[in-house]
Model the fold of this input.
Amino acid sequence: MFRKPKPTFNLIPVLPKNYRSICLRAIEVSQDPKVLMNKHLITDFSDQEKLTQKEIRECINFEIRDGNVGIMGFHDHPDEMWINENYREFADYCEQQGWLRIEGPAS
Done:
Protein backbone atom coordinates (compact mmCIF):
# COMPACT_ATOMS: atom_id res chain seq x y z
CA MET A 1 0.00 0.00 0.00
CA PHE A 2 1.17 3.48 -0.80
CA ARG A 3 0.36 6.42 1.36
CA LYS A 4 -0.03 9.92 0.08
CA PRO A 5 2.73 12.03 1.66
CA LYS A 6 1.63 14.70 4.08
CA PRO A 7 1.97 18.23 2.74
CA THR A 8 4.95 19.94 4.33
CA PHE A 9 5.48 23.58 5.12
CA ASN A 10 8.15 25.62 6.78
CA LEU A 11 7.65 27.00 10.27
CA ILE A 12 8.31 30.54 11.45
CA PRO A 13 9.54 30.54 15.07
CA VAL A 14 7.80 33.17 17.20
CA LEU A 15 7.87 34.27 20.84
CA PRO A 16 4.26 34.89 21.93
CA LYS A 17 3.23 37.64 24.33
CA ASN A 18 -0.56 37.55 24.08
CA TYR A 19 -1.73 33.99 23.42
CA ARG A 20 -5.45 34.71 23.29
CA SER A 21 -5.16 37.59 20.80
CA ILE A 22 -2.94 35.51 18.52
CA CYS A 23 -5.42 32.63 18.67
CA LEU A 24 -8.47 34.76 17.99
CA ARG A 25 -6.74 36.32 14.98
CA ALA A 26 -5.77 32.86 13.65
CA ILE A 27 -9.39 31.76 14.00
CA GLU A 28 -10.49 34.93 12.22
CA VAL A 29 -8.19 34.39 9.20
CA SER A 30 -9.17 30.71 8.92
CA GLN A 31 -11.99 29.59 6.65
CA ASP A 32 -12.52 26.34 8.57
CA PRO A 33 -10.99 26.85 12.06
CA LYS A 34 -10.16 23.87 14.23
CA VAL A 35 -8.62 24.46 17.65
CA LEU A 36 -6.89 21.54 19.35
CA MET A 37 -5.78 21.77 22.98
CA ASN A 38 -4.00 18.68 24.30
CA LYS A 39 -5.52 16.77 21.36
CA HIS A 40 -9.11 17.79 22.24
CA LEU A 41 -11.20 19.82 19.81
CA ILE A 42 -12.31 23.17 21.28
CA THR A 43 -15.46 24.73 19.82
CA ASP A 44 -16.20 27.51 22.33
CA PHE A 45 -13.81 30.40 21.72
CA SER A 46 -15.18 32.63 24.48
CA ASP A 47 -13.07 33.74 27.42
CA GLN A 48 -15.42 31.76 29.67
CA GLU A 49 -14.04 28.46 28.41
CA LYS A 50 -10.58 27.03 27.61
CA LEU A 51 -9.28 29.61 25.12
CA THR A 52 -7.81 31.94 27.76
CA GLN A 53 -4.29 33.18 28.48
CA LYS A 54 -4.03 30.90 31.51
CA GLU A 55 -5.37 27.74 29.84
CA ILE A 56 -3.22 28.21 26.74
CA ARG A 57 -0.11 28.87 28.86
CA GLU A 58 -0.70 25.64 30.80
CA CYS A 59 -1.36 23.61 27.65
CA ILE A 60 1.26 21.17 26.35
CA ASN A 61 -0.08 20.50 22.86
CA PHE A 62 -1.84 23.31 20.99
CA GLU A 63 -2.67 23.91 17.35
CA ILE A 64 -5.04 26.00 15.27
CA ARG A 65 -5.77 24.59 11.83
CA ASP A 66 -7.57 25.83 8.77
CA GLY A 67 -9.23 22.57 7.86
CA ASN A 68 -6.29 20.14 7.88
CA VAL A 69 -3.55 22.76 7.47
CA GLY A 70 -1.80 24.00 10.60
CA ILE A 71 -1.78 27.79 10.97
CA MET A 72 0.05 28.01 14.28
CA GLY A 73 0.76 26.01 17.39
CA PHE A 74 3.27 24.61 19.81
CA HIS A 75 4.23 21.34 21.44
CA ASP A 76 5.69 21.04 24.95
CA HIS A 77 5.80 24.79 25.78
CA PRO A 78 4.00 27.95 24.55
CA ASP A 79 7.33 29.76 24.12
CA GLU A 80 8.11 27.31 21.31
CA MET A 81 5.25 28.60 19.15
CA TRP A 82 5.43 28.38 15.38
CA ILE A 83 3.43 29.83 12.51
CA ASN A 84 3.05 28.21 9.11
CA GLU A 85 5.14 30.13 6.56
CA ASN A 86 2.09 30.27 4.27
CA TYR A 87 0.49 32.54 6.91
CA ARG A 88 3.34 35.09 6.96
CA GLU A 89 0.90 38.03 6.71
CA PHE A 90 -0.83 36.75 9.84
CA ALA A 91 2.54 36.53 11.65
CA ASP A 92 3.49 40.05 10.52
CA TYR A 93 0.11 41.42 11.65
CA CYS A 94 0.46 39.82 15.10
CA GLU A 95 3.98 41.23 15.44
CA GLN A 96 2.76 44.72 14.49
CA GLN A 97 0.10 44.46 17.19
CA GLY A 98 2.77 43.56 19.77
CA TRP A 99 1.29 40.10 20.39
CA LEU A 100 4.45 38.21 19.40
CA ARG A 101 8.00 38.61 18.15
CA ILE A 102 9.20 36.78 15.06
CA GLU A 103 12.37 35.00 16.16
CA GLY A 104 13.90 34.12 12.81
CA PRO A 105 13.33 32.94 9.25
CA ALA A 106 11.11 30.00 8.41
CA SER A 107 12.81 26.62 8.41
